[in-house]
Design a protein that fits this description.
Blueprint (H helix, E strand, L loop, with lengths): L22 E15 L2 E12 L7 E8 L2 H17 L11 E7 L12 E4 L3 H14 L11
Antiparallel strand pairs: 1-2, 1-4, 2-3, 4-5
């Protein structure tokens, strides 16, 4: 184990699959069509996500690319909405997805890896996400306050 608080330069940040079995609150930021990778061109979604039930408490992960097909399908329209609008006027937050990340072996095809999905959250998990979001709300800055 290293005492360094940072990842190595080429590490590229946390991949979402590292958080299998955990409750994630995912905010899709951008849909990226046809990104060049070492495996060829592929679509992906740029996300920020929060691990709500991690072993060390809440963990916020920013600017991660999601390449898993099922997750891209689930988040593509949210990413496009968030890119265009920033926040959903109905909620005051960007569009998000909440669920427990898992590899769905029942949908595995041939020699391919099973697709990654977010399982529907239960009421306790939804309450945990609401509590987290409530703690993130900040009042708008007062433009007339003295410095």
């Amino acid at each position: 184990m290293s005492d360094d608080p940072f990842k190595s330069g080429s590490d590229g940040g946390a991949g979402i699959a590292e958080y299998a079995g955990q409750l994630l609150l995912v905010t899709p930021q951008e849909y990226v069509e046809s990104m060049k990778t070492s495996y060829g061109d592929t679509d992906c979604v740029r996300v920020n996500f929060v691990v709500l039930d991690g072993p060390d408490g809440v963990e916020e992960i920013e600017d991660t690319l999601v390449f898993q097909r099922m997750l891209i399908s689930a988040m593509k329209s949210q990413a496009k909405f968030n890119e265009a609008n920033g926040v959903n006027p109905a909620t005051g937050h960007p569009k998000m997805t909440l669920g427990v990340l898992f590899a769905n072996v029942a949908k595995k095809k041939g020699n391919q890896d099973p697709p990654w999905e977010l399982a529907e959250p239960n009421d306790a998990q939804k309450a945990l996400a609401r509590k987290y979001l409530a703690g993130k709300k900040t009042a708008p800055a007062d433009p007339f306050a003295s410095a």
